[in-house]
Each structure stands twice: as C-alpha cells, then as structure tokens.
Structure to design on (448 residues):
C-alpha cells in the first residue's frame, strides 16, 4: 500500500533537487531581477532610509564628511561609516540609483560569502542549497532598493566570520578590520566580538595555552577604530567611530509608553523623551538625557522592564516585512500597518486605496508567501538546534554564529525591537538551515 506521506516527501525532495540543480540559472535571474528593479522600479526612501540619505546629501552639498558641523545638535549620530560610504557614492554620481547599484554589489558579495562559508563548513551541495535559500529570502532583494544600513552591516559581519575561519594571521587581522568596520555601521557588531572572545576563552581553558587568533583579530579591529575615529576627530573635533543611538534605543524600550517596538509617543510633551528645546543640546547631551531617563525608569520599574523583553522579541521575530512592501511598490503599507488597519477598520477596500486591484493582490501574495517562507526557515532552524543539542554536534564555527545571534538578541531585549534588527541573524544562520535540509531531505539525491 502506498504511503501518502512518503509520496509527499519524495515529491518535495524532487522539487528541491530540481531547484538546486539549476542554481546557476536561478542566480542569473536573481541578478537580472535586481537590475530591472533598480532601473525601472526605483523606490522613494522613507523612514530611516530617507533620514540616512538626507544626512549624506547635506554633507555632500556642504563638501563635508559625516558627522559634520551641522550634525552636532542632532539627537544622535547614526551609522557613521555607512553614511560616509553614501557620501562617497554621491560624489561619484548624485542619484539614489548609485546607492542601489552599490547595494547590488553588496548583496552579491554577501551571497558569495554565505556560499563560501557553507562550502567551508560543509560541502558544495550544501553551499548550493544555501545560495537558493538566500535568493528566495526576498528581503535580500528588497533591501537593494532601499538605503538601510543592515545590508552593508551584514556583509561586514559575514566577511569577518569567513576570514576568521581561515588559518592565516593576515586574514585574522582582516577579519578584525571588518569587525571594526561593522561596529562603525551598527553597535550590534560588538556581539560578534564577544562571540569571538567567548570561543577563545573556551580554547584557552581547554588547551591551557594562549590563543593568538583573538589577539590578532582585536588588533585589526582596533586599527580600524583608531583610523576611523581619528578621521572623524580631524574633521569633526570628536573621536566618533560608531553610532550613538544606544541611549535613545534604551529609552524606547524603557518608559511608560513602551510597547517593545518603536513608539513615538515617548517624545510627546510630558513623556520621558520630551525635550523642550532640542536644538540647544548636542548629541552627547541628548544621549546623556535619554540614558538618565531610561535608567531611572528601569530602577523604579524593573519588573515591568523585564516583562517588555518578550514583546521586543515579538517585534523583532514575529513578522518579517523588512523590505517586502517595497517590491510591490507599496512601502507606505507594511504588514504591521495592514494588520492594525484590519483590526481597527476591518475594511479591505481602504488598504492601498489609491492602488489598482493588481497591486493589492501582488502586495498580499508577496506578504503571505514570504511570511510562510520566513516561518519555515525559523522552524528548520529550531529543528537544527534540537538535533544538534541531542547529538552534541555543535562546532566552533556554529557556536560563533549562534553566539552572535544570542548576544545580538540580548541587546535587543535590553533596548528595543524591530524586524530589521534580525536581518543579520537570519543571514548568518543560512548555512546551518541548508545543512539540515541537506542531511534530512536531500541525502538520497546527488546534486551535480
């Protein structure tokens, strides 16, 4: 008697085998689609993407680097290394298309490093599976059209991990330089440094001898921080090497109106983040004010603050519209706004009211298909974790990736959640998702 479950399993294996075996064609199509989107469907920047562009544009117009004199009285400084890269791009050609073409290069390099990392850890078959997983994760495509720092930050993270896995002092140093550059984009880069150090301390106690790899990596990191910080000191007068958004993110997750995600009510008059005359305070003074407000609230409301941690996780991992809406040309309507609107209004016709029925259908199909795919990745990752715990299969390499995700998640639990913050976590775990698929579903087939 034919077992239906076996038939479904065999069918799934054949489909996956067919997809992976055509990886070169799929990669070519992926690149072509990105080029078409860049030149024929450019996106208007919104939110942080627009803010980053305005910062870079202002510096470009005044022929300065970031931070510039006009940024002294900002609430905080953001992604200084990334903003300076954008300024250089605008000097080449002042257009958002220039940024998208740069993002295309970054995206392909990121894919290359994920492929090579998987190949180093496992084999060629698994590397091809990771390539397909990456391509089908549509946020990688959508981010090319935007101006967020996550794409560039993640490239620096995965390239640092790749060179860290090599056996060369020069490449260890390069890993450290890239680590320092990631910190220059987002403070979350510190999570990778801590991961390296934890693994190194473990080896020191296990082998009872000094490990030189972390020393070399830290030397490379400090080299970048000193170089970039000094560069900023000479043109800005302050040693700035990373973003100063820590205090405001801490406050967003530690106040009476906190929800776990971004909530602008904290800035309203009478609330913790309200500043009567913000233009009179430097970013340093504003940061000190935000931090004091947040820490004072945490001292009084410790239990409530701890209780917000699960909500921060939910805001980060509970949905995944990082750049999906942009693919449908509906960036003003993301998945959270849609859900809130349906909950309150319950009228489908008022969603994307100015768009055609075709765009509406495309929007909902993209959201549904992508979120099914995203949650499947999460489920497979959980199965991989369970399998490795049971069989004690964790390696130094897998622990570095896991520790980066774990420490980065703890940083989110301390501050505030956002779906964008998990993008690097998803990307760095793709090799292990691919390995689980390879071991559980494709072992009976050969991928040539």
């Amino acid at each position: 008697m034919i077992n239906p479950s076996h038939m479904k399993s065999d069918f799934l294996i054949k489909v996956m085998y067919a997809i992976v075996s055509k990886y070169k064609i799929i990669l070519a199509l992926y690149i072509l689609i990105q080029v078409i989107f860049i030149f024929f469907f450019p996106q208007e920047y919104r939110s942080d993407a627009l803010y980053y562009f305005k910062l870079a544009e202002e510096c470009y117009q005044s022929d300065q680097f970031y931070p510039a004199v006009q940024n002294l009285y900002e609430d905080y400084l953001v992604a200084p290394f990334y903003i300076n890269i954008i300024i250089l791009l605008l000097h080449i050609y002042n257009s958002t298309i220039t940024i998208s073409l740069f993002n295309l290069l970054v995206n392909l390099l990121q894919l290359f490093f994920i492929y090579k990392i998987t190949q180093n850890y496992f084999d060629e078959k698994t590397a091809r599976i990771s390539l397909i997983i990456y391509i089908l994760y549509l946020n990688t495509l959508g981010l090319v059209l935007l101006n967020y720092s996550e794409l560039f930050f993640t490239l620096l993270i995965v390239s640092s991990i790749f060179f860290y896995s090599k056996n060369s002092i020069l490449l260890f140093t390069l890993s450290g330089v890239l680590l320092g550059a990631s910190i220059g984009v987002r403070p979350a880069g510190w999570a990778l440094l801590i991961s390296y150090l934890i693994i190194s301390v473990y080896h020191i106690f296990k082998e009872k001898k000094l490990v030189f790899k972390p020393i070399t990596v830290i030397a490379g990191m400090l080299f970048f921080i000193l170089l970039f910080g000094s560069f900023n000191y000479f043109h800005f007068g302050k040693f700035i090497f990373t973003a100063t958004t820590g205090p405001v993110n801490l406050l967003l997750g530690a106040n009476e109106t906190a929800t776990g995600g971004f909530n602008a009510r904290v800035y309203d008059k009478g609330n913790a983040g309200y500043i009567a005359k913000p233009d009179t305070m430097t970013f340093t003074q504003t940061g000190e004010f935000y931090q004091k407000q947040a820490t004072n609230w945490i001292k009084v409301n410790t239990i409530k603050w701890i209780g917000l941690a699960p909500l921060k996780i939910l805001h980060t991992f509970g949905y995944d519209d990082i750049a999906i809406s942009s693919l449908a040309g509906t960036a003003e309507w993301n998945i959270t706004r849609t859900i809130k609107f349906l909950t309150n209004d319950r009228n489908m016709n008022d969603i994307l009211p100015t768009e055609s029925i075709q765009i509406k259908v495309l929007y909902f199909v993209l959201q549904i298909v992508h979120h099914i795919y995203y949650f499947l990745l999460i489920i497979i990752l959980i199965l991989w974790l369970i399998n490795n715990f049971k069989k004690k299969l964790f390696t130094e390499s897998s622990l570095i990736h896991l520790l980066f995700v774990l420490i980065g998640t703890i940083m989110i639990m301390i501050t505030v959640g956002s779906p964008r913050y998990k993008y690097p976590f998803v990307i760095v775990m793709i090799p292990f998702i691919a390995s689980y698929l390879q071991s559980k579903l494709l072992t009976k087939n050969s991928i040539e």
User: Anything to note?
Assistant: Residues 16-240+318-440 form one domain. Confidence is low (pLDDT under 50) at residues 444-448. The CA atoms of residues 126 and 319 lie 27 Å apart. The two ends are 33 Å apart (CA to CA).
